[in-house]
């Protein structure tokens, strides 16, 4: 059976689509959060989100400590109300702040890494739900990866494992300043304006009382949840103390379901042991001990997909080829294919592994836009008698349109037709 992966035809597009399908892309500038209610005018709130120097300034710190913004009861009520009013409370931008320092050396650092990897295995990590960024602390603060670097929990877990131990006295306060200034509200790092913000700190160091008050007030103003996990040794009684402040302190973390509630997800997952389950990104997984493991993507024949599924795939291609966040990488793949096509890649002995790699890069890019999309294939053997009559070439919004015509070989119908694009003259330009 000849297996031809689709989607490459769309890679031949050089110019931008005139299309506005950006609903699934959530790149916005951070907006001032509830400024009037919280006692800050618009300009002051803007400074909180963008001015790096403001967090360290004594006047602002004093203001946060002395100003009676809300009573504790009203804090909790207003924070919950803002969460309920969010566009999608299930969206979470999660920052893991891992402290490398310990008086006992590297032993506790590796315990923290094991805990993070175990936690991540339970989480629905994909672009439309939970995105994870990581920052490490030692003698300096280091961004390990941002929200848009990894699109699933497997990749996050592997990257966490690569964080190396380094010696040096650390400062949780400095780490939080970096997180708030350079990661949590930065669209270029993949932060979303309509997602809940959660910071999990793994450290033996604790904040001083003035620092605690500072971050408690600031995180309440910016609607950020901070969980401080000490990873103490197991004790007879589980300790999970949620104070009236925004900061949450945990000493015993044997019950991961409490962290799950903080993140708005179920830990462990309620699924029948051994059953096949599809995760939110439509990957096929197996339920083992409340976790979804051995997850794999499912690729389908294009002609067996519903019209809705086909249109969804095509719209994601259009977004990848036009939106500034993806267009550069999309065009890089286009260039790679053009270059290798002209140098005889199809006759090379390593063609099959190279082609698998190439399709995976293309599919990964599309899944950053919609993680439920995979690259379909054409079951060409079933239509070998009349290949051009295949439903693949349907001229509607759920097909790739007909063949190119005329001296320019431009496509005249379908979602990639010439009047929709600036140009789609692929055959003469790219050998496609």
CATH topology of the largest domain: Rossmann fold
Please indicate the percent range of residues in DSSP E strands (runs of 2 or more): 15-25%
The rounded Rg comes to: 25 Å
Sketch the topology as an H/E string, one letter per element: EHHHHHEHEEHHEHEEEHEEEHHHEEEH
Which parts are unreliable, with pLDDT below 50 for 5 consecutive residues or more?
A: 1-77, 233-247, 422-432
Mean pLDDT: 74
Strands, total number: 14
CATH class of the largest domain: Alpha Beta
User: Which strand order spans the largest sheet, edge to edge or round the barrel?
Assistant: 4-3-2-5-6-8-7
Cα shape: elongated
Structural class: alpha/beta
Overall structural domain count: 3
Number of helical stretches of at least 4 residues? 14
As a percent range, the share of helical residues equals 25-40%
CATH homologous superfamily caption of the largest domain? von Willebrand factor, type A domain
Largest sheet: 7 strands, mixed
CATH architecture of the largest domain: 3-Layer(aba) Sandwich
Distance separating the two termini: 22 Å
Detailed description of the structure:
The chain has 432 residues and is an alpha/beta fold. The protein folds into 3 domains: 229 residues, Rossmann fold (3-Layer(aba) Sandwich), CATH 3.40.50; 27 residues, no CATH class; 130 residues, di-copper center containing domain from catechol oxidase. It has 14 helices and 14 strands. It has a 7-stranded mixed beta sheet with strand order 4-3-2-5-6-8-7, with helices on both faces. A hairpin with a 2-residue loop joins β10 and β11. α4 packs across α9, α6 runs antiparallel to α7 and α12 runs antiparallel to α13. The two termini are 22 Å apart.
């Amino acid at each position: 059976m000849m297996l031809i992966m689709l989607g490459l035809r769309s890679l031949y597009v050089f110019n931008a689509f005139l299309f506005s399908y950006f609903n699934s892309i959530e790149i916005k500038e951070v907006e001032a959060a509830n400024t009037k209610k919280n006692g800050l005018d618009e300009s002051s709130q803007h400074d909180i989100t963008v001015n790096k120097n403001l967090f360290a300034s004594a006047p602002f710190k004093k203001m946060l400590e002395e100003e009676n913004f809300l009573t504790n009861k009203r804090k909790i009520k207003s924070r919950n109300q803002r969460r309920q009013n969010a566009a999608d409370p299930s969206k979470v931008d999660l920052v893991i702040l891992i402290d490398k320092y310990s008086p006992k050396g590297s032993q506790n650092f590796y315990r923290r890494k094991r805990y993070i990897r175990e936690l991540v295995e339970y989480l629905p990590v994909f672009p439309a739900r939970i995105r994870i960024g990581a920052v490490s602390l030692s003698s300096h603060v280091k961004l390990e990866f941002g929200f848009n670097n990894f699109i699933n929990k497997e990749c996050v877990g592997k990257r966490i494992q690569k964080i190396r131990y380094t010696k040096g006295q650390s400062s949780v306060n400095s780490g939080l300043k970096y997180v708030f200034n350079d990661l949590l509200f930065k669209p270029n790092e993949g932060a979303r304006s309509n997602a809940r913000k959660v910071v999990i700190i793994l450290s033996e160091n604790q904040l001083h009382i003035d620092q605690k008050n500072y971050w408690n007030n600031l995180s309440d103003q910016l609607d950020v949840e901070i969980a401080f996990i000490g990873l103490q040794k197991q004790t007879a009684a589980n300790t999970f103390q949620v104070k009236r402040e925004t900061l949450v302190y945990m000493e015993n973390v044997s019950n991961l379901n409490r962290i799950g509630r903080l993140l708005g997800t179920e830990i462990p997952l309620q699924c029948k042991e051994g059953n096949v389950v599809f995760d939110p990104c439509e990957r096929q997984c197996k339920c083992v001990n409340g976790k979804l493991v051995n997850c794999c993507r499912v690729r389908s024949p294009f002609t067996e997909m519903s019209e809705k599924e086909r249109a969804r795939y095509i719209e994601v291609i259009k977004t990848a080829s036009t939106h500034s966040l993806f267009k550069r990488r999309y065009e890089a793949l286009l260039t790679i294919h053009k270059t290798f096509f002209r140098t005889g890649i199809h006759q090379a002995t390593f063609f099959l592994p190279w082609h698998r790699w190439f399709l995976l890069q293309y599919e990964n890019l599309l899944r950053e836009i919609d993680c439920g999309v995979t690259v379909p294939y054409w079951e060409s053997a079933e239509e070998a008698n009349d290949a051009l009559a295949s439903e693949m070439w349907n001229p509607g919004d759920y097909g790739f349109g007909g063949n190119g015509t005329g001296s320019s070989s431009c496509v005249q119908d379908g979602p990639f037709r010439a009047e929709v694009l600036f140009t789609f003259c692929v055959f003469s330009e790219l050998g496609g």
